[in-house]
Amino acid sequence: MVARRKEKKSQNRIFIPLEGLNQTLENLSKHFTVWVPMPSGENEWSLEFKPLHRGCKILLDRQSTLPPKKVILPQGQTLIEYEYKKSESDPSKQDLVLREVIDESPIIVFGTRPCDVRGFLVCDKVFLQGRYIDVYYRARRLNTLFATLFCREADDACFCSSVGSGPADMEGSDIGITPIDGGWILEGLTDRASEIFSLCDCEAPDEKQIEDARRVQEEVRSMRVGNLRTDGVLEGVKGQFQNMELWRDIAESCLSCGVCTYVCPTCYCFTITDEPQGLRGERLRSWDSCMFYQYTQEASGHNPRPTKLERYRNRLGHKFSYFPLRYSGMIACCGCGRCIRSCPVSIDIRQGVERVREAHHGCVCS
Ligand code: SF4
Ligand code: SF4
User: Rounded distance, CA 38 to CA 288, Å?
Assistant: First the structure.
């Protein structure tokens, strides 16, 4: 039997035994807020990421129902607190005192899937690139680490390999987690990982465990998840923009409920509201949805996307055409399949993409 080595310093791999997971993460939670996937309620059929608490049930055996999007982009977030105060220089006037609320506390998200992290890589383009940098998003993003599983649990709705990612895609992650018999091997992928490992109080894996992890990783790397073809869709959305028969076929049963956007790791529509309370108040950012009629309604009453057909066209077009056109070909869908599993009328975005492709290629050939 190969003796285990304690490598407290500059350790690049650790082994967490099954029974040691909660304790290891509790050690980390003295220094970070640790988010883990756990049941949303009493039943275990729905999972979501929540901050670790003592004795909580961490479930790493399947993709979470809701992505960890809210860790960086909270569903409701105070951006600014404000207060009107009598001016000291001129008591007949009031000064407006503003305080920006920027959260820079350190966070680890443990148990993400490659599609979850890919969602943040998409959002990064919007919030961190170009003329306007979102300081609220940036503060959280820079202080968050991701520990990501090599994903062996794809189901029929997953199609990450079709959109530029895959079940072994570790881009954007700081730590790779490989499930093996008896526990997990964690490997550092960025400089930030060794700091984490030094706080875990775990042993280094032995050679057999390293070999087991290598085999699992090879198996996951060889998986191709999904067979959606996206060639021609970028141009197809533009070419079929006015083909309302096509969009009716794709989206006629849509209820405009917005669930697909709320479960989506790459949807980032939001609204801003002020919540006054007397002479003070807060400016809030809250998730919104392009599938809602009110989202695009203008003050005049005019609405450029008045029906669900225009709204669904926008959702699909944004992810597979407008976004890649703007951001060097990156598709704004990570293939997680959550919208497909959650839609109450079983609308499948893959079928919409295929219909657009077919219509486009039909046009090209005719
Ligand atoms: S979840 Fe389905 S029904 Fe609801 S808005 Fe999305 S596509 Fe329409
Ligand atoms: S559009 Fe659907 S499959 Fe694509 S990232 Fe959003 S929820 Fe996942």
Answer: 25
